[in-house]
């Protein structure tokens, strides 16, 4: 069926009517709405600006970008990712240039927020029903029906829709950041690492802020607020009273008052370009984050920030509980170490030296990337203390065997070798009460495996190669090295060079060659003269 003749269809027709105006504000501080006009007729651009140029929506004006072809529009859309609405012609350099641009916007750019109003002077080439079904557009207008009032109504409706979608998307992204912050912060196991994580996520929530300052209310939650850590303009204030930041000019008096009031009123505060976020952990004095130089926050922003503060408070409590658990484990390790020392007078200094060597070797292996799955940060933090338990099973060995000045006979040797399994059982049972990876579980692993040999001839299980836990392979080298260097009831101390030669020869037989290589480098570094 032939389409009706509308005369010059490329011309926008505006009736003699005055559209209702949203009241203008004397001063507008919010950023304008960006409207992209895509049409090959220059008059369309001019008339649209005349009709809509002084309209305000939600107190914000409109700014218009112009493209006279789909290719120009592509370039503008790549340069401006905050276009709110597009007034798009269909027929330009080709009969379907506008429709192809819709595909580009939705599929290639992945922009599903911008509202697209399709305007056509030739409806027959882009039938409304087909276009609405096949293309992700938000309105369809024939130019012949677009009065000034209808253009105003369609544009404001598109902006309102864009605003709602943007709010939802902003909230969704904010929630994703909060969830991500929760997951990553709760993985932090030290207070310093947790604080670094908090500052990183605050920077993500307040993009382009000038500075962030984390502070506490002072001892027992009273007194002059103290800076814990800072970034941006507040970098370098760690551990200093906020009054110092005031004196140094990094913080003004109003900001200091805002922080003090937040602590006094036990609630966050917000200004036009600053915020004080308060979080109250059960495990200590309240803390506050002062953020300076950010964009104005809406209600969604403030709710997300309140949720983030709750996450931070829970994280601080978790860190406190984890630290208390670690302290309890360390106390247990020291108690068990003392028990082994009581049985064997040479054990005390020996286990402390082994702990030091084990830590250094583990760090060296981590730096080399030799065992990325095993030598992680937790392993390196724990192995030194856990290695002190390697001989705890000796508490069950008779003194007559432990302190015998000469070589052990076969029966005595069999009894002595039982200390590895005995120590592992004691520690594993205790570790089970704690759960997860901990000092005691690693100590059990070391106690059981540090007498295994790389070639499979060790005890108690005859494990071979990588079947021996890395902790056991590290402590095996450190144990032999320290034992040979020092006098025992049944032997004299060896020369250091002779001990190192033995360790080199035993690489691949008694010891893991990779661990030996790292150990030798650590020893060389320890013996190297200090730089002047």
From TrEMBL:
Keyword annotations from UniProtKB, A to Z: Phosphoprotein
Give TM segment ranges.
Answer: none
**Looking at the keywords, is Phosphoprotein present?**
yes
Specify the domain of life of the species encoding this protein: Bacteria
Residue ranges of every copy of the Response regulatory domain listed in the record: 34-158
One of this protein's Pfam families, by short name?
A: DUF3369
Q: 4-aspartylphosphate: which positions carry it? A: 89
Q: Which residues form the HD-GYP domain?
A: 325-532
InterPro entries with a match to the protein in the record = CheY-like_superfamily, Cyclic_di-GMP/3'3'-cGAMP_PDE, DUF3369, HD/PDEase_dom, HD_GYP_dom, Sig_transdc_resp-reg_receiver
| Name of the protein described by the UniProt record | DUF3369 domain-containing protein
């Amino acid at each position: 069926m032939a389409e009706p003749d509308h005369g010059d269809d490329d011309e926008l027709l505006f009736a003699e009517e005055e559209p209702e105006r949203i009241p203008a504000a004397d001063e507008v501080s919010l950023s304008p709405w960006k409207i992209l006009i895509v049409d090959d007729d220059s008059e369309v651009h001019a008339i649209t600006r005349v009709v809509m140029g002084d309209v305000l929506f939600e107190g914000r004006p409109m700014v218009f970008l112009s493209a006279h072809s789909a290719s120009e529009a592509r370039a503008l859309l790549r340069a401006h990712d905050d276009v709110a609405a597009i007034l798009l012609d269909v027929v330009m350099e080709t009969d379907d240039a506008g429709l192809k641009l819709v595909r580009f916007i939705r599929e290639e750019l992945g922009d599903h927020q911008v509202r697209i109003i399709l305007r056509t002077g030739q409806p027959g080439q882009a039938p409304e029903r087909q276009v609405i079904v096949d293309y992700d557009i938000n309105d369809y207008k024939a130019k012949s029906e677009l009065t000034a009032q209808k253009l105003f109504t369609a544009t404001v409706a598109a902006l309102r829709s864009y605003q709602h979608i943007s709010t939802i998307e902003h909230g969704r992204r904010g929630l994703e950041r909060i969830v991500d912050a929760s997951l990553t912060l709760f993985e932090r196991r030290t207070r310093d690492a947790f604080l670094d994580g908090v500052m990183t996520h605050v920077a993500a929530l307040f993009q382009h802020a000038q500075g962030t300052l984390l502070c506490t209310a002072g001892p027992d939650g009273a007194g002059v607020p103290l800076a814990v850590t800072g970034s941006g303009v507040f970098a370098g204030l760690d551990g200093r009273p906020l009054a110092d930041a005031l004196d140094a000019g990094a913080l003004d008096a109003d900001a200091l008052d805002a922080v003090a009031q937040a602590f006094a009123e036990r609630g966050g505060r917000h200004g036009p370009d600053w915020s004080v976020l308060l979080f109250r952990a059960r495990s200590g004095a309240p803390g506050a984050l002062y953020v300076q130089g950010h964009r104005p926050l809406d209600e969604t922003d403030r709710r997300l920030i309140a949720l983030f503060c709750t996450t931070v408070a829970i994280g601080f409590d978790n860190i406190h509980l984890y630290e208390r658990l670690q302290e309890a484990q360390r106390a247990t390790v020291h108690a068990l170490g003392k028990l082994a020392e009581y049985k064997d007078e040479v054990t005390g200094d020996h286990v402390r030296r082994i702990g030091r060597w084990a830590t250094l070797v583990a760090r060296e292996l981590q730096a080399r990337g030799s065992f990325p799955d095993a030598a992680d940060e937790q392993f390196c933090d724990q192995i030194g203390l856990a290695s002190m338990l390697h001989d705890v099973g000796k508490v069950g060995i008779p003194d007559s065997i432990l302190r015998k000045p000469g070589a052990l006979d076969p029966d005595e040797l069999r009894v002595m070798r039982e200390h590895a399994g005995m120590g592992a059982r004691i520690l594993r049972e205790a570790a089970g009460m704690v759960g997860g990876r901990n000092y005691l579980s690693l100590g059990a692993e070391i106690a059981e495996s540090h007498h295994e040999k790389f070639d499979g001839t060790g005890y108690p299980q005859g494990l071979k190669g990588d079947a021996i836990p890395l902790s056991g392979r590290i402590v095996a080298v450190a144990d032999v090295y320290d034992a040979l260097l020092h006098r025992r009831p049944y032997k004299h101390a060896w020369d250091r060079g002779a001990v190192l030669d033995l360790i080199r020869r035993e690489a691949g037989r008694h010891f893991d060659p990779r661990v030996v290589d790292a150990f030798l480098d650590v020893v060389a570094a320890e013996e190297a003269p200090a730089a002047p």
